[in-house]
Amino acid sequence: MFFDHIIRNNRTINPQINNVLLWDYDLTSFDWTAMRKIVVQRVIERGREEDYLAIFSLYGGIESVRQIIKDEVPWLSPKDMSFVCKIFMLEKEDLKCYIRQQLKEKCIFAIKYDD
After folding, report:
1. Which of 25, 44, 47, 85 pairs with 78 at a CA distance of 20 to 30 A?
2. For the segment 13-67, what is each residue's pLDDT rounded down to a tens digit?
């Protein structure tokens, strides 16, 4: 997998997500478990390698993060969806955010052309 070389070469990982990614939250009372879908989404959108390593450590490894991406992340841009599909070996049709986007487009189309 894409991150294997990074994990192998970083034996002493001090996982810490860059606070800038969550600039709009009060991190002193932040619930990292309840907000995992937002954390993972922000790392995908703007994170660096160190941020990915931090979410792997924080949320139980690559497979756990992969599952969060599939089942919980509410929205990703088309570019970010392509990235996670390639890196985490996923199909876009398996992503909750892709399914939501498709349903939204169908709904808008149906309303717009329902005359």
Report:
1. 25
2. 556 899 999 999 999 999 999 999 999 999 999 999 899 999 999 999 999 999 9
Residue 69's nearest CA partner among 91, 46, 50, 47 is 91
Residue from 47, 44, 49 nearest 74 by CA:
44
Q: Calculate helix-pair angle for 49-58, 62-71, nearest 10 degrees.
A: 90
Give the span between the Cα atoms of 41 and 35, in whole angstroms.
Answer: 10
Closest CA to 17 of 101, 34, 44: 44
> Which ranges of the chain does DSSP label H, i.e. alpha helix?
4-9, 36-46, 49-58, 62-71, 78-87, 96-112
Distance CA(48)–CA(53), nearest Å, equals: 9
Q: How far out from the chain centre does Cα 88 lie?
A: 11
The domain spans of the chain are 4-112
| Residues 54, 114: Cα–Cα separation, whole Å | 47
